[in-house]
Design a protein that fits this description.
This protein is of the alpha/beta class and 132 residues long. The chain has four helices and six strands. The C terminus is likely disordered.
Length: 132
């Protein structure tokens, strides 16, 4: 499973729409091992195409416009928004099996029910899928 996290100044970028760099890791779902990792430049004219070209399954980000989020979902990229903190710590938590990532939620994000109720399909979180 390929995971991307937009980065800015060593943290999750505050807004994906204007992010210029993503940290990408290939997480082996069986072992939890980070198989490969690298930083890639996001084409500002086509962030969806950039992530698609990289084969990203899951985008973990902070804020994201609804238009861009919908476009990513339409391309099969699961979007887990309202996250903050160190990308390395988030990747380490995923590798350790923490698919809820609750400790990385942005303050105030719990009021955004569509996103907080969403099942993390690729990450293996349990629960009913919600419609968009």
């Amino acid at each position: 499973m390929i995971i991307a996290i937009p980065v800015w100044s060593g943290r999750v970028s505050p807004v994906f729409d204007v992010a210029r760099t993503v940290l990408v890791a290939d997480l082996d779902p069986q072992s939890g091992e980070l198989v490969a990792q690298g930083a890639y430049v996001v084409n500002p004219a086509g962030p969806v195409a950039t992530l698609s070209k990289l084969g990203v399954d899951v985008l973990i980000c902070s804020a994201i416009s609804s238009t861009l989020e919908a476009a990513l979902w339409a391309q099969g990229v699961e979007v887990i928004a309202d996250m903050c903190g160190s990308p390395d710590e988030i990747m380490a938590a995923l590798a350790a099996g923490d698919v809820s990532l609750d400790r990385f939620r942005s303050p105030g994000s719990r009021c955004r029910t569509k996103r907080t109720e969403k099942t993390h399909h690729f990450l293996g979180a349990k629960g009913p899928a919600t419609s968009r």
